[in-house]
Specification:
This protein is α/β, with parallel strands linked by helices. It folds into two domains: about 210 residues, FAD/NAD(P)-binding domain (3-Layer(bba) Sandwich); about 150 residues, 3-Layer(bba) Sandwich (FAD/NAD(P)-binding domain), CATH 3.50.50. The strands form eight sheets. It has a five-stranded parallel sheet, covered by helices on one side. A five-stranded parallel sheet has the order 11-18-12-13-14. A three-stranded antiparallel sheet has the order 6-7-8, with no helix packed on it. The chain is globular and about 65 Å long. Bound molecules: flavin-adenine dinucleotide. Flavin-adenine dinucleotide binds next to helix 1, strand 2, helix 2, helix 7 and helix 9.
């Protein structure tokens, strides 16, 4: 029997697994290797931060999904590939042989340019680690009044792309809820957002960045635009629970923050560069229109970790989602000895960005409307539809199979 191995439970693989469950491949052993059992859905993550969605509502249960797809599930972190031997190397598990491979492992914020960066900042990815810090912080705020009274508690967010802006607005919404529940003024919390460029949401038309700039200023978020964070050091131990850190920018600007989150440009996991697969200069896997590696046909890559030659697109979940079905179709074709078909990613896409207070802004091409409650309800409907396809995998559709969790 031939082996088809999927690495990572990203958005494209979630869709592929669901489709394999509905239309199983015969004579192929399907394996999913994932380092988590609950895969976060990026569209609802900021809403989870604001408290609009529970953990389960915005996470895909990969164990259920693997069972549905009749896939062997291996919970482990992939640390490399042995391409000559056609093996996946894991942190704990013995090497896993493959005939065809598909990689959908996302990306992580780039922290390479910040001195002391990795030590004092909380990257927004991996998401489980980020959520653990966030929840720990919320617990502390709820249990220790002192945190608010010594001086305003300062949160720093590095990166003013769509993710950073959405995170700032949703974190602020949650923190204001907490303060108001205790009868405290919103002035006890300050949010500082640092962005290298002069306009927010780089990559979007200038007008959209300006629209968000107005909104953030209106909401009292401190913007530091055109500021490149260079160094972060511990400033004082004044606060008993959370050290104060000094953010130093290239311009000489310094800001003291208690907690600092990193939402900078997507960067690739380092082991890919050593894997032997062709990558671009940022380390993302170069794939052609069939989603196969340009250097190693039979190895597919999708989502943030893939860079489609001649069709570069932003690193956004919406593209990973769109690649799910063509990936499934091409894996079926290659496993049946047929030629995979080309896929052309769309140029424009609808970005619905939640602004925290049950409102959203919509951006499409050069157009932007909102924020409005109506757009939030639309976004909420789209996101819930997406999650429902996994949550409502009907019992009768589930194949009772010899399912193993290694
Ligand atoms: C705050 C924030 C908000 C965002 N909001 C949006 C939004 O509203 N809309 C949008 O389109 N995009 C949004 N994005 C971008 C979006 O998060 C990414 O583009 C998207 O998650 C990429 O999907 P993916 O399928 O490539 O990978 P991911 O969704 O990141 O999934 C990768 C999976 O692989 C697993 N994995 C990673 N490494 C390994 C390994 N070595 N071994 C095994 N498993 C591994 C991970 O645990 C994870 O489950 C947002 C990003 C941020 C930071």
């Amino acid at each position: 029997m031939k082996n088809l191995v999927l690495i990572g439970g990203g958005h494209a693989h979630a869709i592929t697994l669901r489709l394999f469950g509905l239309d199983p491949l015969s004579c192929v052993c399907l394996t999913l290797i994932t380092d988590v059992l609950s895969a976060p859905y990026s569209g609802m993550l900021p809403g989870h931060i604001a408290g609009f969605y529970t953990f389960d509502e915005c996470h895909i249960n990969l164990a259920d999904l693997a069972r549905f797809a009749q896939a062997r599930l291996i919970v482990d972190e992939v640390i490399g590939l042995d391409l000559p031997k056609k093996q996946v190397l894991c942190k704990n598990h013995s090497p896993i042989a493959f005939d065809w491979l598909s990689i959908n492992i996302g990306s992580k914020p780039d922290n390479t340019t910040i001195l002391g960066g990795s030590e004092y900042v909380i990257p927004v990815k991996p998401v489980p680690q980020f959520l653990a810090y966030w929840n720990q912080f919320l617990d502390l705020l709820q249990s220790d009044q002192k945190v608010f009274f010594e001086r305003p508690f300062r949160l720093g967010i590095i990166g003013g792309g769509a993710g950073g802006v959405e995170l700032a607005l949703n974190m602020q919404a949650k923190l204001h809820q907490l303060l108001s529940a205790r009868g405290l003024s919103p002035s006890h919390i300050e949010i500082h957002l640092f962005h290298r460029q002069l306009n927010l949401l780089t990559g979007y038309p200038t007008f959209i960045g300006l629209r968000f700039r107005q909104l953030l200023i209106r909401r009292g978020i401190n913007l530091h635009l055109g500021e490149t964070v260079q160094q972060i050091t511990v400033f004082s131990h004044h606060n008993s629970n959370l050290f104060e850190k000094l953010i130093r920018c290239e311009s000489g600007l310094t800001v003291i923050c208690n907690l600092i989150f990193l939402v900078t440009n997507a960067s690739a996991l380092p082991w890919l560069r050593e894997s032997g697969l062709d990558t671009d200069n940022r380390g993302f896997i170069l794939v052609d229109n069939t989603l196969q590696s340009v250097s190693h046909p039979g190895i597919f890559a999708t989502g943030d970790i893939a860079e489609i030659v001649n069709y570069s697109r932003p690193k956004a979940g919406v593209f990973a989602v769109r690649q799910g079905k063509p990936l499934f179709e091409n894996l079926r074709l290659i496993a049946s000895g047929k030629t995979p078909r080309p896929f052309y990613p769309q140029k424009f896409y609808l970005a619905l960005i939640g602004t925290g207070k049950l409102q959203a802004l919509a951006a499409w091409g050069i157009y932007c409307i909102g924020p409005s409650f109506l757009l939030w309800y639309w976004k909420n409907w789209i996101d819930r539809q997406f999650m429902n396809q996994f949550a409502k995998l009907l019992e009768k559709d589930r194949k009772i199979c010899d399912h193993r969790v290694d």
